[in-house]
Amino acid sequence: MGEVDPAFIQDPEHRPKLSIIKAEGIPSIDLSPVTLQDFISYPKSIEGVVREIGNACKEWGFFQVINHGVPLEKLHRIQAAARKFFAQPLEDKRKIRRDERNALGYFDTESTKNIRDWKEVFDFSMEDTTLVPASPDPEDKEEATWTNQWPEYPPELREACEEYTQEVEKLALKLLGLIARSLGLPENRFNSYFKDQSTRIRLNHYPPCPSPQLALGVGRHKDGGALTVLAQDEIGGLEVKRKTDGEWIRVQPTPNAYIINVGDIMQVWSNDRYESVEHRVMVDSEKERFSIPFFFNPAHYTLVKPVEELIDEQNPAKYRPYSWGKFMTHRRLSNFKKLGVDNIQIYDFRL
Ligand code: OGA
Ligand code: NI
Question: 39 CA distance to ligand 1 centroid (A)?
Fold first, then answer.
């Protein structure tokens, strides 16, 4: 990527400020009571973690975790493999390009809200195939499959990805349980939705950009799934829209921490107790950056709606049920075809 193509240029009100607000950041939560000991023998300190997570979800929608239990060598291995993969010539990467039928593989022309993102990505799923609806049409009951496309180079990438995601899945499940508890629900309340999960993992590469004040690595957006578990490197660039005043706050890289955010599905399940918060990625004129989000998503046939235990006459449901798979395929297709309209949002299902 050389000079900035107009397709990348953000409208003036969405351009990043080069002076970064570093003040009070997102909460950092130590998971050692959960990861180092078992749940039952240490109820007190786990209750503390549950409270911290509940407050972070309410106040920020974002938090970092340390002592999370994911072995560092697994993270380093996937990071090194990602570097090697993206360092290849474009034509080699495009051999496994994703297309209209298969959402998995390499892609370098993604847009957010119809503006190009200054990045390239490699997407894969937990299982080698993922069942999804064949079309966004609610009447169409046909299913389709997405299939992982592994590159020839580097040869260790596949194993590095598979081993890494098994570890991050354990963390994601723990977090799901802690979030459920923070809502006063049984720890396993959401687990059944993930039996045929449609989780996707992404290797992001943000190359240096000659005009970081005009373009974004990822434009402002909310994650559509349940929970995101993100590894970022030491460069930094992720910004979160602070709920109290709408300012964009930089998430400072903390070595070996994960950044967690609740997605739209958690917002609906919790009936707006936990909101999915807007975020975006700034790029740098000299430094490239890598990140690895794990998008923890339920089975495509999941009907997403506020959980019954959280609604009553005083707190009626704020959303009508929607199909996660249909939502996801609708988004994907409108991105792919660049329909020029704003994408489907959970707001469309608000009562
Ligand atoms: C995303 C995202 C943040 C980052 O891919 O949805 O928000 O730091 N990524 O790469
Ligand atoms: Ni995101």
Answer: 31
